[in-house]
Structure of Cytoplasmic protein:
Amino acid sequence: MTTPRPATELSADEARRIALRAQGFLGSPDRKAGVRGILRHLGAVQLDTISVLARSHELIPYARLGRVGRTTVEDAYWKDTHAFEYWSHAACILPIEEWPHFAFRRRAYRNRPHWNHDLPEGTYDQVVKQLRTEGPLTATELGGAKKTSEWWDWSGTKVAVERALMYGEVVCVERRGWKRVYDLAERAVPADLLHDELDDTACLRRLVRLAGQSLGVGTRADIADYHRIRGEQVDAVIADSGLVPVTVEGWGKPAWADPAALATPPRGRHRTTLLSPFDSLIWERARTERIFGFTHRLEAYVPKPKRIHGYFAMPVLAGGRLVGRVDPAREGRTLVARQVSLDSPKAVPAVAEALVEAASWVDCTDVRVERVDAPELRDALTQAVTRALVTALR
């Protein structure tokens, strides 16, 4: 594909601020739209099993809106069919109106030549029949999720219902105790959206456009990664996606931007906050390094002796920059900063503010700092936390 000559040149700082605004950080968030507005703005909110402060899909709106109630978050996603869970960047909560645009992925799953789990004959039809009669149900209620205690040893029922989810015959309509609750798509998805009429090109064009809007500006790899489509699929549709080619200082690669993101300069400030490692602002490591000069890596799956920043190190966003990391834990009503990494002494007040606000959100009344990568800053951080706690309690 011949790439059109870029019409716009952006500085690295402009690109960073465009990305922050596109991700819902710069400018006043639409509080009236709340969590649902955040979901539609981002296009995808990643799910993950790890819960330290809270689960990742709760941390995403918290980072943008502040102390939104956790029940409010769950209700916003699942009540009144505003969202569905499907495979996008990973397992993600997606706006329900995007159901038709994942038809290309549902077709790909239906045409998949092999699976990692065998499906006993008749089980698929039995699961669909049971959901039609009794649904919505969890895998346990359908007959059991696992054959043994091993996480990977799925029962035939679990294999069947997950395959039906991939095919689009079944939808996850909520998470209950972190278990998926399944129902038939014909009941759960609004009738005007329940179709697979769009061809692959139309689906991909839409997802590329959505990725560009959610990123503000991105390279081919950034855009492909957002909903995990292939680079050649991006190439095939990007000229007709509505995104425009740009160059960004220091990126060294062609980039595309959302025209709306270029129409006005990004202005405003944002909250100082902890970020989930699965936040879409930072979930692509190479992009995070390119935009923020910050190396971000989830170490939960790294052997403990090899961890550098901690099990669930959460980057701290302040002043449009990533200024440090906190690996949190909870002991009763104390939020424990097990390990803190600071980019410089100037980051101390921001990290203290982020810690105290996060503690308040999860009903902790105290904060304890254990280890700081620069030991000489531990006392300063502890004192800043104490001052922030006193201010918060006034």
About this structure: The mean pLDDT is 92. Residues 200-215 form the longest helix (16 residues). The chain has two domains: 1-272, 323-393.
